[in-house]
Structures are given as structure tokens and as C-alpha cells.
Design a protein that fits this description.
- With about 400 residues, the chain is mainly beta.
- The protein contains two helices and 32 strands.
- It has helices at about 5-20, 405; strands at about 40-45, 55-65, 70-75, 80, 85, 90-95, 100-110, 115-125, 125-130, 140-145, 150-155, 160, 170-175, 180-185, 190-195, 200-205, 210-220, 225, 235, 240-245, 250-255, 260-270, 270-280, 290-295, 305-310, 325, 330-335, 340-345, 350-355, 365-370, 375, 390-395.
- The strands form eight sheets. The protein has a four-stranded antiparallel sheet with strand order 1-2-6-5, with no helix packed on it. The protein has a four-stranded antiparallel sheet with strand order 4-3-7-8, with no helix packed on it.
- The model is unreliable at about 380-385 (pLDDT under 50).
Amino acid sequence: MTMKYKILFILCVTALCFQRCQYDAPTEVWNPDKTYPAPPQITSLKPDGSQFTGAMVINIIGANFGTQKDQVNVYFGNEQASILTVSDTEISVKRPVITGDSLVVKVVVNDAVEIAEFFPYKLSQIASEYSSFLAGDVVYGVAMDAADNLYVMVRNGVIFKVSPDGVRDLYTDLSISKAEDLKVGPGGDVFLTAKVRGNSYFYRVLPEANDLEELGKIAPRAFKFDYTPDHNIYFSGDECGAYFVDENYNSKKVGGYDNFDVRAVRVYNGYLYLSAVYNGSNTDIIPAGIYKSEILADGELGPVETVFDWRNAGDFSELEPGQIAISEDGDIVIGTDYTEPLLYVHSDGTAESLYPGLLTPSAIHVVWGNDEYLYYSRGDEAGEYDVGRIIKVRMVKKSAPYYGRNN
């Protein structure tokens, strides 16, 4: 083969190789002919994150968000938020579970070539495990003193004292198996009721002696109690009525609560409040909820009044009301076995789940501390939990006085 044909052959083979090696290139990402939406912008968030808030809805203020929820995504750090509403200038989202002092908030709008960012944003922790109580520590009562020490009674008569920094120490080891109710009373002492041969007995705890001082025998099943400003006490319980006990532990029956299964007793603003289920036949009385009676002279009680009808509790109404705590302005927190453990009843009668999605069930014993923290003990469904027994919840207001504790 002459040199001329050799060169021609090589050129043909080379051309053929180039032709066979061609491939389809990817579609260009940037389409110069397409109209892209204006980039989103974040100017502020409400609440602004500078102070603790219990708000469960966060509003993102800005521009160019569009109006379609399915075209927008919002992130707090790496946590995607659930969007409630979208307008071109405002997005409302559910508060995400994530917490942090310097979160980056991002808004991503489909087809927009830029991502809006806001930094830093603070989401404080709302609830946390308190102290070192484990799943096996079945709790029979919680109470708090004026110095924010929490007293927790567990099985076999053991009471722990938990300091404000969460460190627990043995307070006393009693001979009784459990308390039916537990409170801090006059002088900073711990008081409790216990069932003895079917009767309700009232005791003062003597921690150094690991013993109890018997103060009186109350009516059978009258285990729930609370103090008045004068250190008198109201007791009630399972269809036993209500009892007024003076400072000398003289007892008398008062009010019209014979047919009530009472779960909690609180004295607030001149009234006796009860969380209860009504088992009587009077159709003018709601079947379950929060009731109150005015405290009259000599410990007598006025008529039964409705504070909150449990039939208005939404999904909570499938269960029954439990222990209660009351805020300084009359809002009521009710413990339940529901998956959202605490129902918050506003003073105007409206109700909602407290911090939905952020609290672990259930709430058996409930006590509000001296500051803006509420504590609840979890129940023992299934016997095991991945977190401990006591949960500390940050509130946005303070408790009403616990008269035994606070004076």
C-alpha cells in the first residue's frame, strides 16, 4: 500500500471512531429562555427568638414566597418544618422539634435560583428529662418546696429530694409502700396521705427518723388534699365527699361532692377546684371535668360550679381528667394518659394540647414549681420508657400559690 493510501485509511478510521464515540449530552441546567421566579427573601421571624416563647407557630416574614404550599420548603437547621399557610410575604410553620441558639432558617422555593436564609435564630428547649429517675422508678407522688427542691416518692416508701440543679439525694425511707397524695406544707415539711386498712390517714414525714407522724384519720378514700392560706386543709377522693380539716385536725364534711370520683384538689383564688368524674344522676352537673366551689365561712363550700366540661376536650375526652396545676392567672394544666399528655385550659374556657408533639406521655402527677417550670411524672404503660420518669417543662407564666408551700 502506498503512503498515499495509508494516510487516507488512517483518516477514515479516525473519522469513524469519532462518529462512534459521540454521546447524548445532559440537558443544560440553565435555560436562558425560561422565566425564573424572583428569589425568596426573609426579613424577620415572629416570635423573633430573642426570648423564650411557648408559641407552636412561627411566622416567617419576607417576600417572593409564592402562594402554593407544595412549592415551598422550610428548614430550621437540618430539620424540615411543617408548613401551615403560605402567602407571597408570609409563611406560617409548626414549631419544629429541633432546638439551638444559632439555627439557620432557610426557605426554598421551587424553580427559584437562590435560597433565602436567616441567621441566627434561637429555639429554646421546652421539655427535658429531669434528674436521674429511670423507667423502673414508679412514681407515687411529687411535691415541691419554696426553694425549688422536688420531692419524689417511688416504690417501697422511698422519697428522694431533688435539688434545683437536678441532683437527687435520699430524703427518707418509710415503712409504707406508697403515698396516695404528697405535698409540702407549713414549715417546709412533707405531708402525705396513705391507705391503711381501707382508710385514709394523714401524716407528716419525719425524714431523719425514717418515720411518719400520724396527724389524723380522714374519711375512707379521701386521699387528695390541698392547703388554704390559713393552713386549713381540704380533702376529697373516690365518692366520699369533701372534708374541711382545721389546723387542729378537726374534720367535717362540706359541699356536695358525694358522687364525685376526685382526682385532684387545689385551692385557688377563694375557691376549691376539683378534677373529677361525676357518677351521680343530676343532669345539671357535667359528667367529668373541672369543678369549683366558693370557700365560705368556717370552711363551708358553695354550690358546685363548672369550670371546664370534659366533653369539650376534643380527643382528650376519650380518657379521663387527672391531676391539675393552676397558673397565677387561672389557666389550668390537666394531666392525662393521652399521647399528648397535658391539656391546657385557658381562663376563658378554651382548651388545647400543651406543646403538641414535644412532650412524652403520660402525665400522672403534676406540680408547678415556683418559677416558670412545671414537672410531671410519667405512667408505667408497658413498663419501659426510653427516657426517665420525671419531665421538666418550661412554661411562659408562673404558678398560682401552693399555700402550704408558700406561706
